[in-house]
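Hey, resending since the last one bounced:
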Amino acid sequence: MNKANVSNVSPLETNVQPTQQVINDICEWEIMHGVAIKNSDGTARHCPFSLAPMAMKRHVFENLQAVTPLIAKLISRISEDYDYLQSSLVEMAKAEPFFGRLMELHAQIHGTQDAPLKAARQPLLLMRTDFMDDRVQGAKVIEFNGIAAGMGPFGQRAQQLHRYVKNQWPKEYNVWAEDKDGIAEDNVCLTQLAQGIATAARSIHAEFTDSEQPTFLMVVQDKEDNVYDQHLLEVALQEMGIRTVRRTFGQLSCQLSTGDNNRLMLQDIGGIDVVYLRAGYQYMDYFSPELAEKKCCHTLSQTRVFIEKHNVAVNATISQQLATSKTMQMLITMMPAEAFSRWEISLEEANQIKRVLAAMLPINTDTIHWFKTEAMKEEWVLKNQGEGGGHCVFGEQITERLDQLQEHEFDAWALMQRLYPHERNKPTLAVRDGEVTLVHDLVSEIGLFTAFYNDKPVTDFEGYAGYLVRSKPAKENEGGIHSGKGILDSITLVE
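The structure tokens again:
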């Protein structure tokens, strides 16, 4: 056990560090309940976690619960506004090759303003909006996640894990919880996401008579390590009477076909009702060395076009992926609230959304000059269009990166106000690979899930579908569970 820095911990906390027996018990609980990451050799390790939950002001969380479905409604409508997507993202698409390809695919599916095409697919928006509760500005959006927005099942399991610790090991829980009297915020993310998917699956299935069960297809990466989070969702769907199958883009490129009435058919399975993409947010997902293509990634990216030309519910559509890009986030942030009326968002709703958006700026010669001569560099972060960890630049390194950018690359990047969330008011124990580390400066990123089908909420909570908390030491820039120093966490509410 790592006992570094324990001199700053109270005698009570020092004396109630959990034994290895306690840690082993909790880690085994995680593995038993599917909260695990797959190793390259086929074995599994438990997902890193905090021993006890964070505390959050009730009014802050309830505001996020109220505003996040409004954001999802806005994104849902922008994603179906084909002319706006093509016109507003054209410069970014020139600067960012991957999004340039997505825009080409988007045009293949939807046509142009002069020659529009009707897309057959039905949009199912399963979105995660990530927030940080800034010390000064309050809770603000970090980013929208419209494709491969995973770990909802793990979010629900994290809350269950902390309930288990509280009941089974109350002494340790009471010492290490940020507020031992906080009320646990129930998290039904797994069941609500499954309900949203099942609703869409049954809706599509009702239009056909070719199979007994609605069928759900998850598009996954080859050699995926986050399979257990995915399998938890599949099991929940199976319990709702939905058949589930998994395929990579490589497999789908030669297994899909068209059935009667524009039905999407999968070889050896039959009709497909829902396609859920846990891959497709990077070029590598479409790369196949066996194809030896003149135009890289053409064949597998065309698989997405083929899917969207059928009567099937899809998350994420290419439209949704474009609508949740960093550039679209910047445009939404910069436009006046009155402009939201284009998507039938009321002024009151628009103002609610605007209040949780952190400032963003485009990259151009004027912005670069301002940043170098006037900006407080620690107050900003430079972002490109990438999903996942490793796509942000901080502090003095921003100037270095800006100096490296060519003018034709500017539109692929944006400056965003850097958020400095509240640190926990007491030290926390983080558990990774069965070992305990004392963390004095843990901060949290809170992702709220929403589920909309054909622009309508499909959960029991007006579109809200649960949450995911990932915490990390404040000094660490990358907070991903897989790619950074992040750990699973949950929320207790305090007045």
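Confidence is low (pLDDT under 50) at residues 1-9.

Sorry for the duplicate.
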